[in-house]
């Protein structure tokens, strides 16, 4: 409720809504990575690659095929999921540090490809003039094309630049809520319980007849899909994408959000995103000392809560019935 009401608060100016949009973007990224790291226990240091794939997929489709945001959004997720499976195949037999190194290399490979594939990605210059999303075909502009209507003319309201800002805020809020709902639902399905079994003990997982290959591939692809969705939103929000937006530090920040929030904890990701992303933005006036404050906050959290802000996770399934039967039999 607080997130829904934020743009209508008395203090909600453009800066506050922009920061809220940024925090929600990282919440969505954290929930996507939480599937891979928190639920399946696979350390992924190259998650920003799927973020970049989603952003560039949307930018290329929108510019060359003249498709809108809502048409390109699912395609960006599908492309990111495919690359998630491509990453999953080489790392099926890897664990721990070796898995982290390969995923880190994958993220850097994608960034280097974006820099050097100049005919497609425009290299380090990036892609500009990416179209912004519209409200069911109604653009947020003060000067619509002749014969067309804009958002403010259709609803008979005065044009303000905040209309597009608030709309983008609610778009990422809806995407984040869908990500959370999907994760909560899938955790209760057999595939979600298989992820958690794989995280606890892969050998025991195999002995139960669970195929780790399929489980790992589904974790990588589904987690990557949500990274692609977030990347698509990032592209349409910024109107410009370049390889410099998808460096390793982005993967490190997203992973820090998952770890500091508590592995596998949905609410923990929210708290960590608000503290690390929102808090860092509030400290922007410190300039060169801002990252020092960011690092100090991370150290303080790990000293105070070594297992994360919310280390306790609600059990995916409870065995009340089995416990009662056992008690009645004795």
What this model shows, in words?
The chain has 15 helices and no strands. The protein starts with a helix and ends with a helix. It is mainly α and 330 residues long. The chain has helices at 2-5, 14-39, 48-64, 69-88, 96-116, 118-121, 151-155, 162-187, 190-200, 202-207, 212-238, 248-261, 266-282, 290-304, 320-329. 68% of the residues lie in helices and 0% in strands. The mean pLDDT is 82. The chain is globular and about 65 Å long.
CATH topology: ABC transporter involved in vitamin B12 uptake, BtuC
- CATH structural class: Mainly Alpha
Q: CATH architecture, please?
A: Orthogonal Bundle
Order of helices and strands: HHHHHHHHHHHHHHH
Provide the number of structural domains. Answer: 1
Strand proportion: under 5%
Helix/strand class: mainly alpha
Tell me, what's the shape? globular
Mean pLDDT: 82
How many H/I helical runs?
Answer: 15
Report the major sheet.
none
Given as residue ranges, the uncertain stretches (5+ residues, pLDDT < 50) are none
Helical content stands at 55-70%
**Nearest-angstrom radius of gyration?**
21 Å
- What assembly state would you assign to the polypeptide chains in this entry? single chain
Number of beta-strand segments: 0
What is the straight-line distance between the termini?
48 Å
């Amino acid at each position: 409720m607080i997130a829904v009401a934020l743009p209508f608060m008395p203090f909600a100016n453009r800066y506050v809504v922009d920061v809220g949009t940024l925090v929600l973007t990282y919440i969505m990224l954290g929930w996507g990575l939480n599937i891979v790291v928190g639920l399946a226990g696979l350390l992924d240091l190259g998650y920003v690659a799927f973020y970049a794939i989603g952003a560039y997929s949307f930018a290329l489709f929108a510019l060359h095929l003249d498709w809108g945001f809502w048409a390109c959004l699912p395609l960006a997720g599908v492309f990111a999921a495919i690359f998630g499976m491509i990453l999953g195949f080489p790392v099926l037999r890897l664990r721990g540090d070796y898995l982290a190194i390969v995923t880190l290399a994958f993220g850097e490979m994608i960034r280097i490809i974006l820099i050097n594939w100049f005919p497609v990605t425009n290299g380090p210059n990036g892609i500009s003039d990416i179209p912004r999303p519209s409200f069911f075909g109604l653009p947020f502009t003060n000067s619509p094309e002749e014969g067309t209507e804009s958002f403010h003319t259709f609803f008979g309201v005065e044009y303000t630049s905040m209309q597009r800002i608030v709309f983008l805020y609610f778009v990422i809020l809806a995407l984040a809520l869908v990500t959370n709902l999907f994760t909560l639902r899938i955790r209760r399905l057999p595939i979600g319980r298989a992820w958690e079994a794989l995280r606890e003990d892969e050998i025991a997982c195999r002995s139960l007849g669970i195929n780790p290959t399929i489980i790992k591939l589904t974790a990588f692809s589904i987690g990557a899909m949500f990274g692609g969705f977030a990347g698509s939103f990032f592209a349409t929000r910024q109107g410009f994408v370049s390889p410099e937006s998808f460096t390793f530090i982005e993967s490190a920040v997203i992973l820090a959000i998952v770890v500091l929030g508590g592995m596998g904890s949905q609410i923990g990701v929210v708290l960590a995103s608000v503290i690390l992303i929102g808090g860092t933005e509030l400290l922007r006036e410190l300039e060169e000392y801002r990252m020092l404050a960011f690092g100090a906050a991370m150290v303080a959290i790990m000293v105070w809560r070594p297992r994360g802000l919310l280390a306790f996770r609600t059990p995916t399934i409870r065995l009340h019935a089995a416990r009662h039967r056992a008690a009645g039999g004795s």
